[in-house]
Design goal:
The structure is a homodimer of 879-residue chains.
Chain A lengths: L4 E5 L2 E2 L6 H16 L7 E4 L1 H9 L9 H15 L2 E2 L5 E2 L1 E7 L9 E5 L5 H9 L2 H18 L6 H14 L9 H19 L7 H15 L3 H9 L8 E7 L10 E6 L11 E6 L3 H5 L6 E2 L3 H4 L1 H18 L3 E8 L2 E9 L4 H13 L5 H7 L6 H4 L2 E2 L7 E4 L1 E4 L2 E7 L2 H9 L4 E5 L7 H6 L2 E4 L7 H9 L3 E3 L4 E4 L4 E4 L2 E4 L3 E5 L4 E4 L4 E2 L5 H13 L3 E5 L3 H9 L5 E5 L7 H12 L3 H25 L4 E5 L13 H11 L3 H11 L11 H6 L1 H20 L6 E6 L5 H22 L6 E6 L2 H5 L1 H4 L5 E4 L1 H9 L7 H9 L16 H15 L4 E4 L7 H9 L4 E4 L4 H19 L1
Parallel strand pairs in A: 4-5, 17-18, 18-19, 19-20, 27-28, 27-34, 28-29, 29-30, 30-31, 31-32, 32-33, 33-34
Antiparallel strand pairs in A: 1-2, 1-3, 3-8, 6-7, 6-8, 9-10, 9-12, 10-11, 12-13, 14-26, 15-25, 16-20, 17-24, 21-22, 22-23, 24-25
Helix pairs in contact in A: 4-5, 5-7, 6-7, 13-14, 13-19, 14-19, 19-34, 20-22, 21-22, 22-26, 26-27, 33-34
């Protein structure tokens, strides 16, 4: 018989495989804790497989698990000496979701199951605590009502709030047993009214309803969005964990808490957690009561605190990773409810990885693989300039580090709308809930008025690598008026603020930033990564400033220096335009002669900075019309400067107009039509090299790149032009210059004809932006109109402009690599599209055995780490 | 030792291989005639290989052929009993070019070589004809001067013309020996003046100069252009034929002529030729004297005429093809100078092929292979409507059949310029010369005032399949004023005229045309072709008129019915615009409901015509903005009709604007974003089918085609939509409809992922227009700006939008075919790009084992023939 249910309790666990795939993350970790002999409330896990059967069975509980489930409940009953629905000693249980991958707050949970009008009386008697028993019952009705029966939970909350208002009290704890009795009556009335049925008194009906609800929550809207954002597949399904309840809210010898074994924000090795005396776990997570620092438990519950510290160590040793833990103390007995690998900031990830290597918990290779390269982004971007003047208007908890500026917005939908308009926002909420997930994803940063360091906002923001300041209790948010107040400041929607998630400060306006510091642990990890990677990492850069940043970040050369950006400079654009508007070759040559000294100077500066390293210079690529003026005013402007008639300029502009510029007269097609342009550029490069040589600067290794080649003939012709120019300049300056000539592979035909093309190329650089555009037939500029429909419809699993489409574009890259190397073993291969800084694309480049990747300066460290990870994963696969 | 020179004379020939590659066309045929025992002036052929050596040897005669050449000359001397440069009995020789492929008039020839101041005296003595001898000498100086020494030939012509003016005569024949003596002196002075050297008296110097000049003429500008137009490679090179001179201008028992063994215009089996008594061949070809019909030779030179007739038969039997022959009669002795396969019109090609099958000269298969499918185009286009009123202004010789209308233009350059502007022209010239070749290529038709049926204009026009009226002696052309007169008519440049190359008539204005007749021999060839072809031939058509034409032309279904063309109809466009401008789904559905009846009606009409055959309907493909108004006026127009503000229409237009519409929101991307549009179209198709069924019309086999697919998910989703719609309609109308769903393969990724895509597709149709655009990254709309540079630079051998680029695009087609069939053996494969009507692309489709090609209605017969040729070539290759 197929094993679908796995038991865990004080005797250990049935799971020998410890597999998250079957048990889900929570179930696997509960099983593991039971095996370690930790105090886990007895229970069992219904496997993810059953979730699949559930959906196949028309969203009904599959028959085959019914008797097994009953048997497992009876085992819990035996251990706890309680019985589900028993009138004298009733067992209460929790029913929780648990997918392969943690989806915090996205799926449903039911607590206190087993209570009804009769068992609640037994609970009162056994605990001698009527208020506690009734509170449990109303919580259960409330949860069951909203999760299983689909009643909007604000209806219950409203009743409580109204009652407190009438009674003139503020906190729930101020309500007594009698008060809860009345509310229980009201809650049941709502259920009767909305569902036309009474609240179920049958405990088995309760159980099956709760299990079904957990399975159904796998496909709730918010769970689906979360999976979409995190690229998780829909077919995995969730497991269901059924466990005996333990209570942190039975009195002052009870407590509940969450903890990280290290500081998830800084990575420091210290206990980091929060707890509440006499509370259930949801009170901590939801942020409705502000919890205490866990360290203070050493005075309130010292024995438990010491036990916890020991368990933390035990779990870290077992999992070799920082753990995120939930626990409950019931009448002075500690129960472990959950452990999992804790989410952390990029900075913390680095510190933890480095520390654990020093603690000999993990190897350097493991440390490298432990860091999500994508999250490094948050560390590589500028931080607030300490010297800048700041108008601090409020402060809160430093929940997720990093600085962000943007327009204040009060709703998730608005944040999303503004993101589509390319506007930066700060999402400001009293507290966040799973419904806000879209908006949190869209915003640059998150600010909440309530909630601690482990509140929803804090946890999710850290997971997303977004700056977050939580629990900024000094601010007053008015959703209706769309303002928030802080002292005398009134901040309106669309006002710009800056938040610093590292310090918890909130500032008015946009605060200037400075370059990040990448020394210390960061640099240690980078050095380890460099040791293990095979791929070289270059940068895409065309300004001295960017080139300097990239080299500081460890770039090993330039993989793409776009020469056209140099043309847009104010002083030059007029000569560029003159060149384009020329009617004769001679006029064009005159205009080019004016551009030559500028280009030469550009190259000299860049060559100095990249001294000793390879620099790939791409010759002019965009269609000429991009350089021409667009507005009447600009056209008028150049008529004077160029002494041409308005009419003749306009006619040339309309002559150069293209239907599809992306597929137009650009790239090497310009070099074929106007060889004098490419010749000028080559002259500038070689003269710059000659100049460097004269000044005894260690030369760069120049790689001259011909763009948009689709046939061998193009590069054959243009290579000849480069070679002839090189020869001329070498003769004039009596120098010997070593250089390479190669091509971008950015058209499907170039990939297919790579063998011919390699005859004339010393290197290929995959221009994956254009290659993706032409392979898919999608213009990136225009794709916004339908890309969303494509992601919604699961046509694109990932945006192919972010991560290489391995099955389509990737096949062309593989084909070009094989055929190119077949022709020329020494062919150097790299990638210079924006994919060059994307970890999963870098993984593909390593698998495909390219020589280097090239990415934007700020992504160079990400690429260095990703390259090491890719190599380590690869050799692991083949060892 | 490598054999580089091949002898031919009355003893036969040295060539055993009869290879045009080595001997060139002319040399191979001379060798063949010698073998047949025909009277060929003795000589030898210097092989094409030597041309290669010549260019490698810095354009100098390679040493290794010098002694061989001398030996061969001595053999001619032995046979003719004359000696080169001999003072008493001098040998005169001709030096002619001869490439693998006939390039009429494109390369150089030197006649009468061996004459100098001394040998001319011997010639005079031996022929007792001083005038003849001096005429020969001046011709030789003139030819040698222009061809070898590069002096512009008009300088010589001018001298003759001036002299005739002074003397008061009109024809050359009115000049006597003394006159020529004077002109010879003047000619030699020009040479001295231009070259700073005397005209060479050394006969060996003359010989090497002439051979070099022939080799050099291989790379003359006009020869290069000719090869470019005809897709001939530059590396073939030319052979050189050196032969003893024979003279048609030694008196009235001499003559020279050219002849076709059948009528090259109609194909009729009759001797068709022209000759001149007492003339050299150039006089006939150049059109300077109007020659006589060859049939009249039966009275003037009956014995020679009978001999010629016998030789014509002999040659046709040997070559199994209609021959184009040159001959000379010297003192009543017939000499054969050339035979080659004759150029002919498409109509003649068909008649000759059919006749030769009936004469048992060739098989049906050979007949099929004998016809250049591309030339059929001229027969398939409308001819002049006999009933239309015509204002005939002149007439001439029906030199090349077909009718053409266009603007009168008097220069080749102007014709070319206007073609670039998409304007039709008729090139009107006194006579044409090889320099006019570009303009003849650009013009729709050619009209000359001088020259016969074998003049340059006539021969070239027939080769190009262009209508031509030659020798229209009634018209007077004034190049300077840019007019021509005919009687009282004065036709100015840019006036429109129509020429009918079948009747020789010239008409004012544009004359209406009627559908061509494709019965008789044409239909016979088509039936034979149908027997031998494997590929089915369908048509691209979306109007009932075109569909009818295509079916009459033998189309076996529709391969591409574009539904968007149906949207542009005046009555519908407003609903289309309303649909696009809709802000809500409901508004859009309302607008679509209005379009439904129109679409249904369209389909019913087409389905009736194609009854019983497959019809592939492509769902909406172009981006929606194509349907929106472009001008202010049009926008104003619809504001009223749609009751929308001008501003909101403009904002929607700008919202829909795309940078690169070719790669934008179009094709199935529309179907994903707006499924209701595709649903309406499917509904129209299925309702039309139900309607046909009710009316007992034999149903078409509908194939619903999803455009621009790049992933399997797209077709999976949209196929579901089609299937669901089909089910609905079948239920409503209680009918059972058989249909297929498939996709266009028009993006590189679709080709690569063909295996996945085939899971959801019953057929693939290769959209080679877009596939070529994306594979090359070239927008066809914009390629005009550089395509010319690409052809000039030999980057494109052929325009990839005309013939499939087999090595790039073709690889993707092959990959898609293999992978698609791997998934689904029954997958039906076709091509519907414009390549579907191009013979060389059809050849590729046969090799790739597609099931059908689809082309424009007028190309259906071309495709039928090409498909048969492709199959016959293929089985020949593999038998």
């Amino acid at each position: 018989m197929e094993k679908l249910i796995y038991r865990f309790n004080n005797k250990g666990s049935q799971s020998s495989l410890n597999s998250k795939d079957i048990l889900g993350g929570k179930g696997a970790n509960l099983a593991q804790m039971a095996k370690l002999g930790l105090p886990v409330p007895p229970g069992f896990t219904i496997s993810t497989k059953v979730c699949e059967y559930f959906y196949k069975n028309n969203k009904k509980i599959p028959k085959k698990i019914i008797s097994q489930t009953k048997k497992e409940v009876s085992i819990i009953e035996k251990i706890t000496k309680k019985k589900l629905g028993d009138l004298s000693n009733p067992l209460l249980i929790s029913v929780r979701s648990g997918a392969r991958f943690s989806m915090p707050g996205m799926m449903d949970t039911i607590l206190n199951l087993g209570l009804n009008d009769k068992t609640v009386i037994a609970l009162k008697k056994n605990t001698s605590n009527g208020r506690f028993a009734k509170d449990c019952y109303r919580r259960f009705i409330q949860m069951y009502g909203s999760v299983v029966l689909g009643i909007e939970s604000y209806l219950f909350e409203e009743l409580i709030e109204n009652f407190k208002l009438t009674k003139g009290v503020i906190k729930d704890t101020e309500l007594n047993e009698h008060d809860w009795d009345g509310l229980i009556k009201n809650f049941k009335e709502i259920i009767k009214q909305k569902t036309k049925k009474n609240f179920p008194q049958n405990v088995n009906e309760q159980l099956w309803g709760a299990i079904s609800a957990v399975f159904l929550s796998w496909n709730s809207k918010r769970a689906k969005i979360y999976r979409k954002i995190n690229y998780l597949p829909d077919h995995w399904g969730t497991a269901v964990n059924v466990q005996a309840m333990v209570f942190g809210n039975m009195g002052n010898d009870c407590a509940t808490g969450v903890a990280f074994t290290r500081n998830p924000s800084t990575g420091k090795k210290e206990i980091f957690g929060e707890y509440l005396i006499n509370a259930q776990g949801e009170d901590v997570v939801a942020g409705t009561r502000t919890p205490k620092n866990l360290l203070s438990m050493s005075s309130s519950m010292n024995k438990i605190f010491l036990k916890l510290k020991k368990i933390f160590n035990q779990l870290e040793k077992k999992y070799k990773d920082m753990q995120d833990i939930e626990f409950t103390v019931e009448n002075n007995k500690l129960w472990m409810l959950q452990t999992r690998s804790g989410k952390r900031t990029a900075r913390a990830a680095i510190k933890i990885a480095v520390d654990m290597v020093q603690e000999k918990l993990i190897s350097k290779k493991e440390a490298i693989l432990r860091i999500d390269a994508n999250t490094l982004d948050t560390l590589l971007h500028p931080t607030l300039d300490e010297k800048a003047e700041k108008k601090i208007i409020a402060s809160g908890l430093p929940a997720s580090p990093g600085a962000a500026s943007g327009k204040v917005t009060f709703s998730a939908d608005e944040a999303e709308r503004l993101k589509d308009q390319m506007q930066d926002t700060i999402l400001v909420r009293i507290e966040t809930s799973p419904e806000d997930i879209n908006g949190m994803h869209a915003a640059k940063g998150i600010l909440t008025a309530r909630g601690g360091m482990t509140s929803h906002a804090a946890v999710v923001a850290r997971g997303m690598g977004k700056p977050c300041v939580s629990g900024s209790s000094g601010i007053e948010i008015d959703y209706e008026k769309k303002i928030f107040k802080s002292g005398n400041y009134i901040i309106k929607e669309a006002d710009i603020i800056t938040i610093d998630g590292g310090s918890g400060k909130i500032m008015l306006g946009e605060v200037p930033t400075v370059k990040p510091d990448i020394s210390g642990d960061f640099s240690k990890i980078m050095k380890w990564a460099d040791k293990y990677r095979k791929l070289k990492v270059r940068t895409n850069s065309e300004t001295p400033a960017d080139t300097k940043i990239a080299r500081d970040f460890g770039a090993e050369g330039i993989g793409l220096c776009r020469t056209e950006h140099m043309f847009f400079d104010e002083k030059r654009i007029i000569s560029v335009r003159q060149m384009i508007l020329s009617k004769t070759l001679d006029d064009r040559k005159n205009a080019l002669a004016k551009l030559l000294p500028y280009q030469r100077k550009d190259f000299i500066e860049i060559f100095k900075i990249m001294s000793g390293l390879p620099v790939t210079v791409r010759l002019l690529d965009p269609p000429l019309h991009e350089f021409l003026p667009k507005t009447e005013k600009d056209i008028d402007g150049i008529t004077k400067e160029l002494n041409m008639s308005n009419q003749s300029i306009k006619s040339r502009i309309s002559e150069l107009h293209e239907q599809n510029p992306m597929l137009g007269h650009r790239g090497c097609r310009l070099g074929i039509s106007f060889p004098e342009i490419y010749k000028m550029q080559c002259q500038a490069i070689f003269e710059a090299l000659a100049e460097c040589k004269k000044k005894k600067i260690k030369p760069v290794i120049p790689e001259i790149m011909i763009p948009l080649v689709s046939t061998a003939a193009e590069i054959k012709i243009l290579r000849k032009l480069v070679d002839e120019t090189a020869e001329e300049i070498q003769k004039i300056h009596s120098v010997k210059i070593k250089y390479y000539v190669g091509t971008m592979i950015e058209l499907p035909r170039a990939a297919l004809r790579a063998k011919d093309i390699a005859r004339y190329a010393d290197f290929f650089s995959f221009g994956t932006n254009d290659l993706t555009q032409t392979t898919f037939g999608i213009s990136r500029d225009d794709s916004g109109k339908f890309l969303n429909d494509y992601v919604e419809n699961k046509i694109f699993y990932k945006d192919p402009f972010i991560s290489i489409d391995e099955r389509g574009v990737g096949e062309l890259i593989k084909v070009a690599t094989e055929r190119g190397r077949m022709q020329k073993k020494s062919l150097k291969l790299g990638i210079c599209g924006e994919h060059g800084g994307d970890p999963s694309s870098i993984d593909f480049c390593e698998k495909t055995k390219l020589n280097y990747v090239s990415c934007s300066p700020y992504r160079v460290p990400i690429a260095r780490l990703s390259a090491a990870q890719a190599y380590l994963k690869k050799i692991n696969n083949f060892n």
